[in-house]
Prior knowledge:
- By secondary structure, the chain is α/β, with parallel strands linked by helices.
- The protein folds into two domains: 194 residues, Periplasmic binding protein-like II (D-Maltodextrin-Binding Protein, domain 2, 3-Layer(aba) Sandwich), CATH 3.40.190.10; 220 residues, D-Maltodextrin-Binding Protein, domain 2 (3-Layer(aba) Sandwich).
- The chain contains 18 helices and eleven strands.
- A five-stranded mixed sheet has the order 2-1-3-11-6.
- A hairpin with a 2-residue loop joins β4 and β5.
- The termini are far apart.
- The N terminus is likely disordered.
Amino acid sequence: xxxxxxxxxxxxxxxxxxxxxxxxxxxxxxxxxxxxxxxxxxxxxxxxxxxxxxxxxxxxxxxxxxxxxxxxxxxxxxxxxxxxxxxxxxxxxxxxxxxxxxxxxxxxxxxxxxxxxxxxxxxxxxxxxxxxxxxxxxxxxxxxxxxxxxxxxxxxxxxxxxxxxxxxxxxxxxxxxxxxxxxxxxxxxxxxxxxxxxxxxxxxxxxxxxxxxxxxxxxxxxxxxxxxxxxxxxxxxxxxxxxxxxxxxxxxxxxxxxxxxxxxxxxxxxxxxxxxxxxxxxxxxxxxxxxxxxxxxxxxxxxxxxxxxxxxxxxxxxxxxxxxxxxxxxxxxxxxxxxxxxxxxxxxxxxxxxxxxxxxxxxxxxxxxxxxxxxxxxxxxxxxxxxxxxxxxxxxxxxxxxxxxxxxxxxxxxxxxxxxxxxxxxxxxxxxxxxx
Length: 436
């Protein structure tokens, strides 16, 4: 009897220990404002799910990508929930590195925007739930255009943007004609540069997987990009990513900014933006084509394949909470409808309260709905992706090309030199990977 009692106690202790492990979630995410909101709201989830505690690992975008990729590929088991995007999700799902998300019926997966849902799926099954989605758009100072007697076209071209930047540039009063992300990286400067190249009629690879970085569209697009930043951008442009340019725009130091549509809620928020009442919105610039001129992205939450069943159940509960319609309403209640995570659900755009608070809503929705990763370049391309190429080799390629273009922005090499080096590096990487 005593032996049976000891065995029973030991079993209970083991079960209790397993339960404790299963209900302490480690979540890796990016240091964007929307994610920091989620972190601040985590006590609400913990109150609704007694026994589950969430610990956050918040990293800059580049560090997050490297850390999560290393953990996933080595089965490091550091994280129970990881923040991934539309590049990683289908590739990692195909390799069996993520668990499929079979969410409860009340989650209403049909409410997710189709392009976002499809981009986070593989073989028709969702592998990451979108926390927020985005495209790119042009944000500008209406007051500065008005004072200069200028008007923003309904659909601006990059040539028109360059003309406006020249007119609006006012360094004597601390106003840059334009701000653009230029910190090197495939998800940093190359997100914007790739959409510019697309709009100039270019592509990364032709149908034989030969790099096209020496073509005229690349030379024109990158030439204009470098010219804009060197003439009308901040002196430290090559060091600035999304968050750094957001801070600059909110301070009133940028006349125009082309970047992620998710920024709209923050630049129009009076509590953080000095120019909240003076911001206008237009579609991302085009040039010879609108195809691929605006990107498509979502930051989403996924469960690594190596997470155990009990832990995965708790992770699934967290993901359902953080990406639900109820969460959208919670953010609206705490921070206002203008700061809810958008780009994910039809119901958000259909809500009159969001429409009233978000003058950019239609521009963002239209951009997301019209972005087509399967048809993002004027010439036919062998790859999927708008601002990226969905092949395993792309991060290394994109990082190196981004580094070369960053050197051109700094004035250390010419655009021609940057693209020649980038072409050689890209060709070498593709040959190593077996592309012939």
